[in-house]
Amino acid sequence: MVYEVKSLNEECGVFGIWGHPQAAQVTYYGLHSLQHRGQEGAGIVANDAGTLRGHREKGLLSEVFKNPNDLDKLKGTAAIGHVRYATAGAADIRNIQPFLYKFHDGKYGLCHNGNLTNAISLKRELEKQGAIFNASSDTEILMHLIRRSHNPSFMGKVKEALNTVKGGFAYLLMTEDKLIAAMDPNGFRPLSIGQMKNGAWVVSSETCAFEVVGAEWIRDVNPGEVIIIDDTGIQYDTYTDDTQLAICSMEYVYFARPDSDIAGVNVHTARKRMGKKLAQEFKHEADIVVGVPNSSLSAAMGFAEESGLPNEMGLVKNQYTQRTFIQPTQELREQGVRMKLSAVSSVVKGKRVVMIDDSIVRGTTSRRIVQLLREAGAAEVHVAIGSPELKYPCFYGIDIQTRRELISANHTAEEVCEIIGADSLTYLSLGGMIEAIGLETDAPNGGLCVAYFDGKYPTPLYDYEEEYLRSLDEKTSFYIEKVKK
Amino acid sequence: MVYEVKSLNEECGVFGIWGHPQAAQVTYYGLHSLQHRGQEGAGIVANDAGTLRGHREKGLLSEVFKNPNDLDKLKGTAAIGHVRYATAGAADIRNIQPFLYKFHDGKYGLCHNGNLTNAISLKRELEKQGAIFNASSDTEILMHLIRRSHNPSFMGKVKEALNTVKGGFAYLLMTEDKLIAAMDPNGFRPLSIGQMKNGAWVVSSETCAFEVVGAEWIRDVNPGEVIIIDDTGIQYDTYTDDTQLAICSMEYVYFARPDSDIAGVNVHTARKRMGKKLAQEFKHEADIVVGVPNSSLSAAMGFAEESGLPNEMGLVKNQYTQRTFIQPTQELREQGVRMKLSAVSSVVKGKRVVMIDDSIVRGTTSRRIVQLLREAGAAEVHVAIGSPELKYPCFYGIDIQTRRELISANHTAEEVCEIIGADSLTYLSLGGMIEAIGLETDAPNGGLCVAYFDGKYPTPLYDYEEEYLRSLDEKTSFYIEKVKK
Amino acid sequence: MVYEVKSLNEECGVFGIWGHPQAAQVTYYGLHSLQHRGQEGAGIVANDAGTLRGHREKGLLSEVFKNPNDLDKLKGTAAIGHVRYATAGAADIRNIQPFLYKFHDGKYGLCHNGNLTNAISLKRELEKQGAIFNASSDTEILMHLIRRSHNPSFMGKVKEALNTVKGGFAYLLMTEDKLIAAMDPNGFRPLSIGQMKNGAWVVSSETCAFEVVGAEWIRDVNPGEVIIIDDTGIQYDTYTDDTQLAICSMEYVYFARPDSDIAGVNVHTARKRMGKKLAQEFKHEADIVVGVPNSSLSAAMGFAEESGLPNEMGLVKNQYTQRTFIQPTQELREQGVRMKLSAVSSVVKGKRVVMIDDSIVRGTTSRRIVQLLREAGAAEVHVAIGSPELKYPCFYGIDIQTRRELISANHTAEEVCEIIGADSLTYLSLGGMIEAIGLETDAPNGGLCVAYFDGKYPTPLYDYEEEYLRSLDEKTSFYIEKVKK
Amino acid sequence: MVYEVKSLNEECGVFGIWGHPQAAQVTYYGLHSLQHRGQEGAGIVANDAGTLRGHREKGLLSEVFKNPNDLDKLKGTAAIGHVRYATAGAADIRNIQPFLYKFHDGKYGLCHNGNLTNAISLKRELEKQGAIFNASSDTEILMHLIRRSHNPSFMGKVKEALNTVKGGFAYLLMTEDKLIAAMDPNGFRPLSIGQMKNGAWVVSSETCAFEVVGAEWIRDVNPGEVIIIDDTGIQYDTYTDDTQLAICSMEYVYFARPDSDIAGVNVHTARKRMGKKLAQEFKHEADIVVGVPNSSLSAAMGFAEESGLPNEMGLVKNQYTQRTFIQPTQELREQGVRMKLSAVSSVVKGKRVVMIDDSIVRGTTSRRIVQLLREAGAAEVHVAIGSPELKYPCFYGIDIQTRRELISANHTAEEVCEIIGADSLTYLSLGGMIEAIGLETDAPNGGLCVAYFDGKYPTPLYDYEEEYLRSLDEKTSFYIEKVKK
Description:
magnesium (chains A, B, C, D), homotetramer, 23 strands, 18 helices, 25% strand, alpha+beta, PRTase-like (chains A, B, C, D), disordered N terminus
């Protein structure tokens, strides 16, 4: 069902808490609000006065903890949790986090959101020294580095390890007596700190979790920071000064929940402003605005408000699609049977529709939705995208690691417009997007990482350098062939 | 979790097909688009050249057919299917439809959406004659009546039975050689007829299923009609002329999917017009419009467009709530931990909010959402409801059979406003609602049943007469007490 | 896996209790000891001071009640329960017993072990009168007859119904204020009465349940009896005097547990005596005795004791076979891969083996085991069967309703010996078996039904008469063809 | 349910194969026949021309591979598999074997039956050097040792590692191009080599697997051997000459399947001889012999044959006990409700019974069975045990690691007799047992490890030395107190 699955995936969400009598329960609710960041697996490690216990499993959080005992046994006043997205090949219980380590001289829980750019060479080097990696994820590299460090203090070991790994990362590390949170030097992945009414400290990939667990936002974790929370309070430290803010712009465009704030900017509001900017840059006549549910509804609101066109529910998503095992046969699909998204004839018939979407990855989804709208009687379909053309892979934690999967890596906007069968195709300009997000910072690109749009990566690429260069020469004709059929 | 579950439930959806080589598969997709009408159980009976086979189970459709074999074994070119909502007490596999009957002289599949008003007296009478009822639902009464009829022709028996049952009903009856659809004399419940590209006939509780299975809408089934579909085509017949159109208005307000059309009126469009009417009747100053997701988003669009106020995503619903077994403890809930709905501080802080909802049943949900918005910093919360005050029970298929569950049965709008803690409370007027829906008909109340609003039932109440009269005297002070706490 | 599944199945076991605070729990344990009589489904109906509640499901008892709540909710001081065996086609939840009936004027639970011989004509007659049957089993016929009876008293209705049904049956009927047990006029199926230490009355298909629940055996239910248990005690009544004892001899041979007593004769002891008789009738030289596990171990003990040959474990059954979903491919099977039964080379190598089995149905199992023993190095394999040749179908509750499935219906013992590849084949004589069982009675055939051996049925066959006569002409060459391959 | 669970458990079974097109399938059947050696988890790693894939899960084999795809995806011509028993605390998926290692320079599958005696100190030492252990089992120590070895050849590394670990072990190690099997220097755990008809080599913890997969036994793996199987054939090598045969005698007494041969001696035959010896040593008058099912049936056969007493089925085990989640409440248990084992009144009533069991661990089971027999009417109960008194813990792979769990560690046979309520208690003498097993060897104790009986361990105890010495002083009065109640 290629056309209905967004081929763009965040890699994980993390949540941690220190100082609450029902720490694992609160972590459960926090993770529940981060479920959109990873549906493949989840887990929690709780700290019960120095005793660490964990539970993790494949599936949605509700499946992972379907037996209430699994949560109840995670006693203690501190916890960390993780929801995981992963590529198909790595769907193994061993990769589900947090990892729980029980050494003769200490116990640790560890989880991670992001992607290391020097993981392959670090792993190889460590294996040559006799290290055995259990999972295929990058995460446990940090623990190997900590355990092998000769630095005399524990925090010294941790900082040494953080300076050795490269790329995008937000780590949570639970020890017997403290909770440590660390952010990469560019702040690629979001991580915020909050406080509950009872004084408990919480950290979360997104602030939407604070609303859910009744916590107040305190501040975001800054690039290069390592934060230590224990019974004496919170301590803000840094492991490097060589930092430069480059928040993943796709968090605003697509990944984050609309009710989260990143770097002080609300995601819904940013998207609505993208919709307004897009309306300003849009050059065509139209009758109604239709957002692709659910990620583009905010942008559609902004576009409608700015353009004065009515915002209509011309596409409806079936809310019961999460767990349907039975898919239409090819034959039925050709007869028009589809399950997840419907165009509403009585709304779009005879209308010139502006179809708002957040981004185009492979183009197959857009093409399918344009076709749905036409079959439902739309007179014209003008596609307007709330972000610029996706042309380059990401190596910091989003699952687009090859240009072959990106239609815009190989095709001009005009070609894409033709391929998806639209009457026109408008992308939001890079400047327009940066302005719409509107972070208060002097950093380049308004403090955002926009490398997938312009190919300018804010860091060296290490193990991916070669892969990246090779990808520049890839010329796939995949989609054009598809269209010819 | 009273405050997050709408205490208002449709009773069931039906789908039928005749003339398609993958009839059960198509029925599966049709039912999937009707899943919102019933999540407690589902089933399909397929007709394979006169051999009828069935499968039914408790749970969502995806659970009922989680083993693909269950669907594959339902061979044949015709099928009927059902999704069921039911009150807790009756959650028994025996009540899951369609029922499959295998007599020595014939086989039948039967399913039903609606509620009979003379079921109790019919059952008692039949039992006295030796009849044994298997399920506790009303549905099988029809089969007993057909089997006991002395009318010489089969269609004569069916019509006799249809004239004996009273209330709201849409029946699908599969025989070995035809598919029969029947509508009550008032057309309370929606039922539409469509045709697929290959000529197959489909019937469905809602037209959204036609979009999903690639069928074209032909027409709705009229009050008092009995329709026969077989290999020779479709035949429109009637079993009574004593009819009067009274479509359930709550279908437009809350139950039906926005992409369905009922009696030629699109549901999203009707809701948007209710929002516009509501904006005209609304008398207060405000800054932003916030719809309660998901049912009130259309009305919010209409309100925003008419009022010129910006439409904002000030409330966000977690999309992963369907299957969460672990609920916050009372203690956590008091600490502010909640799972399903969040108010977005950065959107509503300091704003005068118009909160749009479709209806108020018990008032607990509204009160909770008002509180969420206030905690998130809203300066004022003005509640605007897209329908009039719900004051009377329904006996035709909606699960509000006692006035004690309806806050407006006992309280004035002013009292309700105070109870839910809003700054103001505006209901759409009855006339406004009828006008917004705007059916083309000369029937009273614009062809709608509005009895829950005005207590004027379009039919005698039979077995419920006494219950109804008793309910008029019920004076519960349930909510006022709640508020005093 | 034809060769490892005994194509001979009992149809069901029943258990009932009156007067115990944990009636459903005790019933669970009672049924657990009757699990061998039916693994396809199970259920319990409990009586809580006149309120009847039930739970039933497909699968083993442990699956049916895998959620402890399912049992806990069955409150009350009386209960009836059922384990069901059924032919594949009827594996439907609707057939799982006990059935629970809720009429406006009374509630009933009903379950049944046996088979009616006039079910088809009774059903047809009742359907013509408007009756609707829910399940495909015979059981509900009794309830239809009771409900339609014009006899003024309830027990009068029950007796009238019992006199209308024909064949083999042991019924348990729970009403709001009593538990009724009834036996067919021949006592085909076993049913015993016991009493617990607290005075509670129990009825069970086999006395092994009494040992498990700590009850003392009181007496067996006699042919033509109807027994009423209520708070005032137990009452032995009869509904007919036209009775003649004909206990199913296969209960002793194969079905019943060795620790049960039927008509005062212990099953293990009867089997051991059959083994001794068989040894007396056996005419060959041999070195060791090997019983086919588990049903033939008692007979093997008897044979060894009588013959003086050592009893050896030359065949071992894997005890983990109940739930293996993965079966060897045909290819692996040809390579000798097998899962359930192993011959032990070090025990049988070079030995002349007497292989003891209880009966031969299709011959495929015996043939396979003979082959296993030969492959393991047995010098000779002499098959000795603890019962006579199975030649005729059973219509009273055992699943052999066609002669085509019985190798001895079509083949002489010499032919069978050749087909199964044995060096010799000895059946226990009919007289030997009757003597070994040794009931104290003057009834024909020592009070046993031996119709499958001699074709002389103790009752008219009603609806099966024609089928039986037709079967006499069936001459299948199925097995001979198999052997030629 | 203490009294029905044998507190004596084997730790695991292994199976491997090289050279069969359906290697994983054959491994599945092999493991299925070893299921009695471990029910907590299972797994298979298959080798598909150098690509290693694995699947492992908690539960019985049938649960682990309940989805046929899980087995089908394990393509390849070689495989190793494991069934695991484990103490409650370690029931974690991470401990389920085989482990699958994917290094940048090689892939390995590893599994293990046994227990290392220097695991704790090895782990600590390795962790100090930076090693991270994933599971809590001993098994992965071997891989750490191999990876850290500086020996230039791979087999050199393996042999170095095998010389470093101490205790009881049978390892299977799959590499990309060979299958390695290794046995500890005492041959504590059984491991045999066989060959299939197509030439494929198989290794298995027990020979019963060979019968199941159609393989011929070639020979057992000897103490100190390391065997390499690859496409060129099989190679027998040794890693140490410092060996002395000491096969675990409890394999013959209790663990192994009766159809397995260990060191050329069939287990059933050994048990039967133990029964005969026991009859010779038995000094009391009795009427019948009753074996405790299932482990003591062979010994009962031998006892009966030798003594001339009839062997009777006086105890019957319910064959459906594996998966019963619902257990009798304490109250019901006191009323005599029990589920797993029944005494047969009609068999034992008035009889002087010799009750044969294989061993006594805690005494609770024996006591319970004696009581069952008495309640069923046995006149006298003489307990005869097919092995000597269990007095000392085992550190080589059986789960009796503390003397506190062994009733005979603290009580004389006379006291035990009184505690279990028997009329007499006879243990087989140590010499009798050794003679009955009858291995052809000059090694001490007839080549058997009998340390649990005489406290003389065939090796140093390393990390357990201290624990063992401490246990000698433990004087628990646990059972006497129990009896006083």
